[in-house]
Specification:
26% strand; 88 residues; four-stranded antiparallel beta sheet; HPr-like_sf; globular; alpha+beta
């Protein structure tokens, strides 16, 4: 299992478009992937789950992956977050 805590830096947080990109990226991997915020844990491959977290700019989330490609999955999601979802 791989875990990584990261701060969301894009202005819109994980609203509709960034959440969709996040779910699309997570769905490319066979590992189980979760996102945790404020002790609420959701499936990273679920758009409704991600949206339900209400992640905004400067919020901190934890990425958790478990499976054969967990390292690649976390790295890919971190790259997406670092790129600010292409917003800037």
């Amino acid at each position: 299992m791989t875990e990584k805590t990261v701060e969301i830096k894009n202005k819109t947080g994980l609203d509709a478009r960034p959440a969709a990109l996040f779910v699309q990226t997570a769905s490319k991997f066979s590992s189980q992937i979760w996102v945790e915020k404020d002790n609420k844990k959701v499936n990273a491959k679920s758009i409704m789950g991600i949206m339900s977290l209400g992640v905004g700019e400067c919020d901190t989330i934890k990425l958790i992956a478990d499976g054969s490609d967990e390292q690649e999955a976390i790295k890919s999601l971190l790259n997406l977050i670092d790129s600010k979802f292409g917003e800037e």
